[in-house]
Amino acid sequence: MDVLSVASEIYPLVKTGGLADVAGALPLALAGHGVAMHTLVPGYPQVMGAVTDGRVVARFADLFGGPAALVAARVDGLDLFVLDADHLYDRGGGIYVDQGGMDWADNWKRFGALSQVAAHLGAGLVEGYQPSVIHAHDWQAALAAAYVAFGSAPRAKVVVTVHNIAFQGKFGAEIFPHLGLPDAAFDVNGVEYYGGVGFLKGGLRCADAITTVSPTYALEIRTPEFGMGLEGLLNERSPDLYGILNGIDGVAWNPRADPNLAANYSATTLGKRRSNREALAARFGLDPSDGPLFALVSRLTWQKGIDIVADNVDWLVSLGGQLVVLGSGDAHLEAAMEQAAARHPGRVGFIGGYDEALSHLIQGGADVVLVPSRFEPCGLTQLYALRYGAVPLVSRVGGLADTIVDANEAAIEAGAATGIQFSPVDGPVLGAAIARAVALYQHKANWSRLQRRGMKTDVSWTASAGKYAALYRDLLGR
Ligand code: ADP
Ligand code: GLC
User: Fold this and answer.
1) Is residue 158 part of a domain?
2) CA 424, CA 411: separation in Å to the nearest integer?
3) How far does residue 471's CA lie from ligand 1's centre (Å)?
4) Which of 16, 80, 91, 186 is buried deepest, with most CB atoms within 10 A?
5) Is the beta carbon of 460 within 6 A of some atom in ligand 1?
6) CA–CA dist 115, 171 (Å, integer)
7) 211 in ligand 1 pocket by Cβ < 6 Å?
8) pTM check: above 0.85
9) pLDDT per residue over 328-347, tens digit each?
10) Atom 7 in ligand 2: residue holding the nearest Cα
11) Ligand 2 centroid to 140 CA: how many Å?
C-alpha cells in the first residue's frame, strides 16, 4: 500500500518541533507494516540543500504565482517529493515566520500550493506513482482534503492529523478565489470558517478520517476548553476521530549509542549518567551540587507553561535544586529565563536558541525533565526522558496524561510509577510537584526504580505504526 504523507517539516532535514520528528520517523516505522510512505515537503533552502540526486517528475508553469517543479529524491532513507518553488520557499527567516517573528504574509499560498500538489499526486500526477491514501499533517497540509473532496479525480482517501489545534491557518475570504477551489467549496461544508477561509477547518470537514496524537487529546479537543473553536465540528465528526500516540525514533534517541552524550549507558549502568550531568553543568556554568538537576527543553510559549516555571525558579533553588533551560520563543519568556539565570549564578543556566545535540545531552544528564504544558497534544520530550532515565515531571493533560504514570504511593509500591504528574496547571501546584520531586530524589532506591521503570516503558513506534496501518486499510475497505 502506498501512502503519501504531506508535512511542512521533517526530521532530519527541517525541524521546529515534534511534527518533524513524527514525519521523519513514521515512514520508517510503517515499512514494517507493509506500507510504503512517500512524503511531500516544501523545498525550503535546507531541504533543497540536502537533495543531491533529485529527479524532476512534474512541472507547473504557474503555481500560486510562479513556476515550480516537483522533485523526487531519496534522502536519509526517506522517499521524498520536494516542491521546488523559489517564490514560495526560497528565503531566509523561519519556515513559518519572517526575521521579525511574524507569520509570512503569503503562508496561505505557500501551504495552499503544498496541499494542492498533494491532491494532484493523489490524482495520478506522476506516472507510476498512485497513493491510495493521503496523510496530511496539521493546517499546512490539511487543505489537501478539500482539494481532493472538491476535485473531479477518483478519490484517494484522506487522513488529516492534528498535531496542535492552536494553529489553524485562518485567512480572510479574499484569498478564496486564488485557491483554485470551486465556488461550492466556500461553504460551511467546505473551507468557509466564520466568513473567512480555514485551512484546518476545511481539512477536518473534508477528511475521511481525523487523527490526533494521543487518546486524551482526542477527547479534549471535543471540549470548548481545548477545541479552540473547532470542538463543534470535531464532535460531529467523532465517529471518524482517532487518538494515536506518537512514538520516538529509537535509533536517533538511544542512550546506549547516542554520540551527543559524554557517556553512553543503559538501565543497568545508570551511574554513568553522572558524566553527562557534569558535562551539562559545564555547558550551563553550574556549580557542583548533590541536589536534583531539573531541565526544560522547549519552545518558550504559553502552551508550554514556561511562565509558571519562571515563577518557581526561586522556590526550586531554595529546595536545593538546579535548573537548565534550552529554548527559544516569546521574548518575554526568554527574558524571564535570562533573569532567572542572572539571579542564581551557578544554580540556574539558560541557553537561548535551538540545539539538537544539546537537547540529547540534557536528556542524558538531567534528573528531572519538566513538561508543565497547559495543553499537550502528545509531547515528545517526556518520551525522550523516559528512554534516557530522566524522570518526567508533567502536567496531567493530553499525551502527558497518557504516557506518564504518577509516582503516588500505590504506583511506587506496585513498581509502576514513571514520573510525576500535577494538575491543574498553575504555579503553586507546579511548586508542590517540584517539592515532591526533590523529596523523591532523596530516596535513592525509589528514585532509581522510577528511572528504570521509565526506561522499560515502550515508547517506540511499533504499536502506533500498526494503528495507522490498520486505519489506512480500514479506509480503503470503506
Ligand atoms: P512541540 O512539537 O509542541 O514543540 P514536542 O514535545 O512534541 O513539542 O516536540 C518538541 C521537539 O523539539 C522535541 O524533539 C524537542 O527535543 C525539540 N526541541 C524543542 N525546543 C528545542 C530546542 N531549543 N533545542 C533543541 N530541541 C528542541
Ligand atoms: C505538536 C504538539 C506536540 C506533539 C507534536 C508531534 O507540536 O504540540 O504535543 O508531540 O506536535 O505530534
Assistant:
1) yes
2) 20
3) 27
4) 80
5) no
6) 15
7) no
8) yes
9) 999 999 999 999 999 999 99
10) 18
11) 14
